[in-house]
Design a protein that fits this description.
With 548 residues, the chain is α/β, with parallel strands linked by helices. The chain has 20 helices and 19 strands. β3 and β4 (112-115) form a beta hairpin. Residues 1-18 have low confidence and may be disordered. Bound molecules: zinc ion (ZN).
Length: 548
Amino acid sequence: MRFTSFLILSLISIQVSAQKPVSIKTAPSKPKLVVGIVVDQMRWDYVNKFKPYFKSQNGFLRFVNEGASCNNNLIPYLPTVTACGHTAVYTGAPPAIHGITGNNWYDNIQQRMVYCVEDASVQSVGIENSGAGKMSPLNVWTTTLGDELKLATNFKSKVFGISIKDRGAIIPAGHSADGAFWYDSKSGSFISSTYYGKTLPTWLTNYNNAHIVDSFYKLGWNLSLPNSVYEANCDADQNDYESAPFGKEMKGFPYNLSGFVGKDYGKIASTPYGNNLVMDVASQTLINEKMGLDDFTDLLAVSFSSPDYIGHSFGPNSWETLDGYIKLDELLAQFFTLLDKQVGKNNYTIFLTADHAVANVPGFMQKHHLPGVVMSDDGVKVELSKLLTTKGINPKVISAISEFNIYYNHNLMDSLQISQDKLTNIITSYLEAKSYILQVVDSRKAAIAPLPQNIRERIVNGYNPQRSGDLVFITKSGYVGGGNTGTGHGVFYNYDAHIPLLFYGNGIKKGTVNSVNYMTDIAPTISTLLGIQMPSGSIGKPILEVIQ
Ligand SMILES: [Zn+2]
C-alpha cells in the first residue's frame, strides 16, 4: 500500500501544485463543493468503537471534533439494502416515491426481475464486449441533490459519482450528472456508460492502464495495528461462521493476495484496497475535473463499497472489519488534506453516512446466547411452493420472492380463479406459524397492520404498486438470510437501520445531535444549506441543529 499510495499522492501533489493555490481570506457564504460519502454497510456504533485506534485527528475525528454528529439517524423504510439507501440519501425520498424498491425487484408491469440501474438503451464505456456498463439512473423517478444543484445553477455545477458498485456511483450522481465511474471486476478498470458520454476521460484511462490492483495484490492484506488491539476488541481471528472470500485455504491474517495478480480482479473489493481505488478515482476526479474552483457549487458523490463486502464475509466483530476502518480512516485523512489544498478549508461541505448497517453474524450471537439464526435465502420460496402444491394450487401464482417481498402472478390467479384474499390467507397463516416470522403484512393494507406505527410507516414508505410485492414478511430480530457463514441486512431492526451521519465544513454548526432524524433528512439539510430546491420527492426535514 505504501508504494501505491506514494505513487498516487505524488501524482496528486504534482497536479495540485500545478494549479493556482486557492487563497480566500474569508469563507464564502456558500460552499464551492459538496462531498457526499456513503460508507456501504457502516453501522452507527463503529466510529465510537474504533475511535481510540484511529491514527489521525484528520479522518473520522475531523467530523467528530470539528463537525456535527447526528447520533440517532435512522432509515425510515424497508428494505434496508444498498440501492434503496443510496437513492434515499440523495433524493430525500423513500422507495414508495423514488421507485427504487430494492437492489432488484419484480416489475409488475414488465413481468420480470429488474436490476436497479439496468438500462438496455446505453452501452458500456471503457470496456468492450461487456454488459457491465449498460447502466444508468433511468429507474429513479425523482430528482436528486445533484440534479437540483444543476437546475439551480443553469447546469454550471459539476456532478460526479464514484464507487466500486455501479449503483453506488450512478444513483448518487443523479440524472443530469457529468459522469459516474464504477469498478469492473472482470477487467480491473473503472468504467462508465454512454449515458454520460462516448469515452472515458483521458486521466481515467491512464489510471486504468497503470493496473494499480495488481500492485495492491502484491502487497497483501496486513494488519495496521498490533494483534493485541484486535484481540482486545474483536471476536477470534478465525471462526467457522465467517466466509472465506479469498479461498477456503486462506483464513485469518495476514492474507497473501499475490495469487490473484493478473487473474482475479474481483477479490480486491473484499479488501480495504477497494477503498484505495475509490479514493484514488475520487481524488483524480476532484483534481482533473477542477471541482470546487468556481462560484458554482459542485457535488462529488463517493461510495465506499468494500466495507460491505468485508462486512458480509466477516461481520461487525471481526479483525477484518476493524482493520478496514483503521485503513479507511487514513484514506479520509489524506482526502481531507487534498480538499483543504484544492478547495480550501471552510470552502467545502462534506457529509458521511451509510446506505444501511448490518446484523451481527448469527453464529457469533449464538455463542453469546443472543438472538441470531441463519435463514436460508430460498427457504421461503421452497416452502411456499410445497405448500401451494399440496393445496392443489399451481405454485407459479407466486411470480417472485425478493428482499422480503412476495409477488403474486395476478394473470395466472385470474385464469385459475384464485382470489387474492384466499392466496393471502393461505400464505399468511402458514408463514406466521414459522419460528423465523414476526408477521406477514398485506402490502396494500400496511397502514393498518397490527404493528407499532413507526414500523407500519416504514413498510408503507417501502411500498410501490409497480415494483413491490403483494405481501411483505417481517422476520424476527437476529434472523439473517444467506448461508451458514457471514451475515446480512435488509430489515428495520436497529442493527440494520441505525446509520452514522456526520457533517463538516462550510455552513455546518459544530456539535452533537441526539434527537432522532432520518436518512431522508440528509438531502433537505444540504439543500437548505445551499439555498436550493429540495429534490422533487423529498419527504424529509432539514436537520436545523447542524446548520449554522
Ligand atoms: Zn449496501
